[in-house]
Write a structure and sequence with these properties.
The chain has 246 residues and is of the alpha+beta class. The chain folds into two domains: 129 residues, Alpha-Beta Complex (Ribosomal Protein L22, Chain A); 107 residues, Ribosomal Protein L22, Chain A (Alpha-Beta Complex). The protein contains six helices and 13 strands. β4 and β5 form a beta hairpin. α1 packs parallel to α3 and α2 packs antiparallel against α3. The relative contact order is 0.14. About 8% of the residues have low confidence.
């Protein structure tokens, strides 16, 4: 379903990166995977592309590594959006929904470009679509001491049964496949955690296709949402969810 681009370094902005390209069109999902080039030099080169509000947000982050990562990732988002809009990265204006989902400002409505972003460690994933709401999430697969308790609390009953049925060695992957798929879905909705996590089911068993199984009383194959899942880098799992045409 998704057009996945290989992992690329998250480079500082350059004059070439600011050059306009053709507007984004098409029905497919475009996913871009980047690894951050960390350090104050990269952040200084990238900060020129940020808005005043983004610079203020970065300044509120306690640790320098987090500030640098935010600055470089946000500058890269602006580069990617600008390439699809045919404009300069520093001219892209963003707005935020009631639950924090970013979107293009209203005067870009004619482009119908939607996007979403997810970070984990030095990995950042960007997803783009045309005319469809989209959500993406990425996590590092690792053992979590309280994973069983978290699953019992946040997974639906159907998901928790599937998780408990896994062999112990498969549970870390099953856990994060479920987590990223649920997170991608609620990010696509734009409702954040205000949308109850037990109102929908996703598949999670390693080796089985990524699917939305149910949304409230509607079976997954009729819910109007599609899901894909993959490993964007060794040790990571990601999920992307896209809505129906509007």
């Amino acid at each position: 379903m998704a057009n996945r681009r290989g992992t690329e370094p998250m480079v500082p902005p350059t004059p070439q990166a600011r050059t306009a390209t053709a507007p984004y069109t098409g029905d497919a999902i475009d996913c871009v995977v980047t690894r951050s080039v960390m350090g104050s030099e990269a952040a200084r080169a990238a900060v020129a592309l940020l808005s005043d509000a983004e610079r203020q947000r970065a300044s509120r982050l306690l640790f320098e590594r987090d500030r640098d990562r935010f600055i470089v990732a946000r500058a890269r988002l602006r580069q990617l959006l600008a390439a699809r809009l045919g404009t300069r990265p520093d001219s892209v204006e963003l707005v935020y929904g009631a639950h924090g989902k970013p979107a293009l400002a209203p005067w870009y409505a004619d482009t119908d470009l939607r996007f979403n972003v997810s970070h984990c460690d030095d990995l950042t994933l960007y997803a783009f679509s045309c005319g469809r709401e989209i959500g993406i999430d990425v996590e590092a697969v690792r053992p979590i001491r309280d994973a069983d308790d978290i699953a019992a609390r946040f997974f639906s009953q159907r998901e928790n049964r599937a998780y408990r049925a896994l062999e112990r060695r498969d549970r870390p992957l099953g856990f994060f496949q479920c987590w990223t798929r649920k997170e991608a879905f609620i990010k696509a909705l734009g409702d954040g955690l205000s949308y109850p996590l037990d109102r929908f089911d996703v598949s999670l068993t390693p080796g089985e296709p990524a699917r939305i199984l149910r949304v409230e009383d509607t079976p997954g194959d009729r819910c109007g949402w599609r899901m894909d899942s993959w490993s964007p880098a060794p040790g990571f799992v990601a999920a992307v969810v896209i809505g129906h045409n509007e």
